[in-house]
Structure formats: C-alpha cells, structure tokens
Amino acid sequence: MGMKDYAAVTFHEDFKIMQLTDVHLVRTAMGGPEEKTLQLISKLVEEEKPDFIAITGDLAYTDTTNNCYATFTRFMDKLGVPWGYAMGNHDDNDGPGYEVLEPILYNTEFCLYRHGLAEVSGYGNYVIGLIDSERKPLWLLYFLDTHDGRKDPLRLYPDQIDWYRNRRDRFAEETGRDSVPAMFFFHVPLREYLGMYESGQAEGVMLESVAAQDVNTGFFDAIKEKGDGKAVFVGHDHVNDWAGYKDGVLLAY
Questions:
Q1: For a pLDDT cut of 90, what percent of the chain falls above it?
Q2: Is 60 exceeded by the pLDDT of residue 2?
Q3: Calpha distance 232→230 (Å, rounded)
Q4: Per mean pLDDT, which range of 25-34, 132-141, 219-228 is the poorest?
Q5: What's the CA gap between 15 and 191, in Å, rounded?
Q6: DSSP 8-state class, residue 31
Q7: Degrees (nearest 5) of the Cα angle 171, 219, 252?
Q8: Is 99 exposed, middle or buried (0-12, 13-18, 19+ CB in 10 A)?
C-alpha cells in the first residue's frame, strides 16, 4: 500500500485507542483554557495509557491556526503516543488553510496523518493498519475528510466512498480474508446518527441536537456491504457523548 494513504502501528492484545475531538485551540500563548485542555489530555494519557490517539477534527478555531497546530504537535511529541487526525470544518476558518496546516502535521514524530491520493476529494483520506508481526493488518482505521462547509458541503463525497471500497477490497485480497475489520474516524456525524438517542438506541449524554452531514451519500450502506465496518467515531457536536448500535455498527461520539 502506498505511503500516500497508508500508515501502520503494531497491534497487541490489549491495544487501546483514545479519541479526542474539537479541542478548539485559540490562543498560541496558552495560559488560559488552552493550557487546562492540554493538562487534561496529559492526565488522560497518563492514566489510560493509550497505544494510539484518534483526533476527529477542529483542533483550532482562530486566524492563527498554524501557530496552534505547531504548539499542539510539539505537545503531542512529548506525550510520545502515535496519533491520527481527521480535519474538521473549523480548521481552516479565517486561518491559513489546510495546505499550510498539513506540513505541520507531517513535521512531527508521532503523527500518522496522510493527505491521501490527489484524485480523492478533501484533505486526509487515509488508512492506518493495526498490524501483526508479519505486518498484516488485523484492524483498519479509516480517516476521512467531511469538508469545511464553506467551500465544500459538509459530507463524505462519492469518490471518497469509492476510495474506501477500493481499499477495503484490496486489503481483503492482500490478506486472504473475506474482509478486514474496520473502524472509521471523521468529524461530522452521518445522517444515521439522527434520532438514535431519542429512540433509545444509544446510551450516554446528549446535550445538543445532532448536526449531521447535509445529505446522505451512502457511506453507511457501503461500510455494511461486506461486514467489515464495525464502528464510526465522530466529533462536531461538542456536548454529545453517546454511543449505540445501528444495523450492527457502533455509532459513537
């Protein structure tokens, strides 16, 4: 698999993933809420000892996003835990844009972010394989871009779904399996999240309405096709923290 859309982390029996989302750093000098946020993340990492951290967008919301990214990546290097990132809709609002932010993510020791293939819509459509001693993936973590909502509507595009299907089938062929179990990380919830909590399908905390993708482009149906899609993890809605199963797939914040 080409390095443009693939990275790998060694898997073990007690492998633990921590999800963070919507950190929304504003000030680069820190000293206020930002410093407390980073202290909390440090404490969580110290207590939970994750093997991998998935961050699902909106790392910063300011016209100096690049400075916040630089501060955060240095912070994450000190933690020493591999991490992946999915772009959020606010990451390039009023700031320098994704094309400036990507090199900051690349210039860090532990971030596994990849831009992905040039022909696929968005920034950051890539896969992280959790691999065994023979470097075969036992799990696949797909990161996708749900776009910024200003230049491009908030959704997963048909070419992103085609890319996922291509990668899914290729990994199955290369490993000699019917499918490789997969989890998905992106910023804006699928429309399948709508109504789940109200209908009792999910447990946790819901303190704001689901701000879902603007249309349903069929991604959920795609991840059910061959049974590999096991879980979807999103952000975007800041004070929702719930999870539930829909058609056998975990949908979670």
A1: 89
A2: no
A3: 7
A4: 25-34
A5: 30
A6: S
A7: 95
A8: exposed
